[in-house]
Design a protein that fits this description.
The chain is of the alpha+beta class and 381 residues long. It has 10 helices and 19 strands. The strands form 5 sheets. The chain has a 7-stranded mixed sheet. Strands 4-3-11-10-9 form a 5-stranded antiparallel sheet, sandwiched between helices. The chain has a 3-stranded antiparallel sheet with strand order 2-12-15. Helix 1 packs antiparallel against helix 2, helix 2 packs antiparallel against helix 3 and helix 3 crosses helix 4.
Amino acid sequence: MKKPLFFISVVILFLAFSAFTVYAAENQDWQPSVSAASAILINADTGAVIFEKNSLEQRAMASTTKIMTTLLTLEAGELDRSFTVDSFAIRVEGSSMGLREGDIVTRRALCYGMMLPSGNDAAQAAAVSVAGSLPEFVKLMNDKAVRLGLNDTSFANPSGLDAYGHYSTAYDLAILTMEAMKNREFSEITARQSMQVNFGNPPFNRWLYNNNRLLYMYNGTIGTKTGFTDNAGRCLVSAARRDGVTLIAVTLNAPNDWRDHSSMFDYGFSKVRNQVVDYDLSAFYVNVIGGETEKASLALKEPPTLPLSDDEMRLVEVRAVTSPFIYAGFEKGERVGNLLFYYNGRLLKTVPLVTSESTEFPGEKLHPAVAFGQFWRRNLF
């Protein structure tokens, strides 16, 4: 069982590193050239924009819509409960996972059917399963968009087929994907090149294959969704991870989306690196009760690394949170607090603060209050 952590004293300061490792591209001035009408690249840990082109323009987004549909389906739960698909819902044009009237399926299988072969039938079947009808599910989609702050997004259907009032922006899709990738099941599904799922009447195993060629074209790609309609053109949302850095790229109406994303990722990974922080803790200490020394100096349990660009690093805020005091008799390396790293209000990392030295109680027999304090501290942290 994890032990609860309670801290009382808090110190807030802006990041001032004595040293940090800087990684930079050989040419700091180059920019990726993209074919897309709209494009964006963001740091998935902070939401900071690394590159953009017309990223706030409202456009049709085709089947990248299914990122929202899949996320809402996963959040609805009951993923492995079997049910019969709605016969009206699966009567839809476009790409399909192969559902037929009377098929027995699970929500989990529908999520794979949406994210891999981009099944419109899967999207609509999932929508009816979750909300009872397509219009009610669309309400859920737009409510979620409002909660996420997607101010330039409007959904009219769960599949992404062209429709009046169905649009988004590259920026909003990047923020939506950043939220979706926090869902472990979503991340697992979107990273699959193929998956065997069970459905039918009676159900039997069959293979589904992912349309996202970037999964095997670009090293480090971990998802997420392709899309195409005549009106939207080629659309792609993708995520890639290298050396602890995760980036999200979006292109809308991109004739050469695979190259666009590869170029943007190359640029992003040249700008954003896991930077090792050598943080100066000389000004920090914790008061000691019952010992020969009144104060104990602090150290970091491990050197912190942050997946940021140099520009982002300058905006990081650090909060040191420690116990107001500790009792004598502690060992070197005992945890007494945390160093918290924030970017734009978002917690990036928590690194334990520990004692950099040990202190013994001077007497042969501990005072009962000190003995109780030692017991309390060791069971608290």
